[in-house]
Specification:
Elements lengths: L6 E2 L2 E2 L11 H13 L30 E6 L17 E13 L6 E12 L6 E12 L14 E8 L8 H10 L9 E2 L1 H6 L9 E2 L8 H27 L1
Antiparallel strand pairs: 1-2, 3-7, 4-5, 5-6, 6-7, 8-9
Organism: Tagetes erecta (African marigold)
GO molecular function, one term: DNA binding
Keywords: DNA-binding, Nucleus, Transcription, Transcription regulation
Length: 243
């Protein structure tokens, strides 16, 4: 069977209509466990990225959507188990308790999920942001046959938390400035002009919005004026005949 590869230049590129929404169990069993033991993956769909070498908005992919990455844990101290999660502009801080990931069939614990929040600045005085990361790791000790260093692999799910209705305009500007891939500029289409060339060119060309018109209103108005002039001429012609 041919291996499926949906990652190009570190960015996930799925065919139109396809979505990648794995469960916690699927991430642990089907992807992370296979990665650690060097087994074939169901598909090359999660890129390898050192997450803590980049700020969350600089990671590959569309930052408006949730993104998944294989990453490795960097130990903060030589004699400890704490991970170094400092980035260029801030750091990831763990929050709450780790959640056990259990299988749906026999409730076996197969992994753990840690929730982290991104802070700008230096600890402990960083400012909290809306960037969230779920870090998945295997729960059980790895076998002796595991390749050295492979046990440090984790899966990181990173997304921007949705805000409520009390978001200020400055907050919205800050979020959009972080997400460089967001394009909020509206596009207007001249459907009436495109209909004249129907059958020859199906690509609708955008019409500039600087004039304050979509292009549809102008065509409709010109059509109504032409029809009104035609009706007036017919009425004048009928009056002359009656005289």
């Amino acid at each position: 069977m041919e291996k499926l590869n949906f990652v190009k230049n570190g960015v996930l590129r799925l065919p139109p209509g396809f979505r990648f929404h794995p469960t916690d169990e699927e991430l642990i069993v089907q992807y992370l466990k296979r990665k650690v033991h060097s087994f074939p993956l169901p598909a090359s769909i999660i890129p390898e990225v050192d997450v803590c070498k980049h700020d969350p908005w600089e990671l590959p992919g569309d930052c408006v959507q949730e993104r998944f990455f294989f990453s490795t844990k960097e130990i903060k101290y030589p004699n400890g188990n704490r991970s170094n999660r400092a980035t260029v502009s801030g750091y990831w801080k763990a929050t709450g308790l780790d959640k056990q990931i259990v299988t749906s069939k026999n409730n076996q614990v197969v992994g753990m999920k840690k929730t982290l929040v991104f802070y700008r600045g230096k600890p402990p005085n960083g400012s909290r942001t809306d960037w969230i990361m779920h870090e998945y790791r295997l729960a059980t000790p790895q076998s002796k046959h595991t390749t050295e260093g492979m046990e440090n692999w984790v899966i990181c799910r990173i997304f921007l938390k949705k805000r409520g209705s009390n978001v200020t305009k400055n907050d919205e500007i800050g979020i959009v400035s972080d997400c460089k891939s967001v394009e909020s500029k509206p596009i207007f289409y001249d459907f009436m002009a495109a209909s004249k060339h129907r059958g020859t060119d199906l690509n609708l060309k955008p019409v500039s919005s600087s004039s304050g018109s979509s292009g549809i209103t102008d065509d409709v108005c010109s059509y109504d004026e032409h029809e009104e002039d035609s009706n007036n001429k017919d009425n004048v012609s009928n009056l002359r005949k009656n005289k």
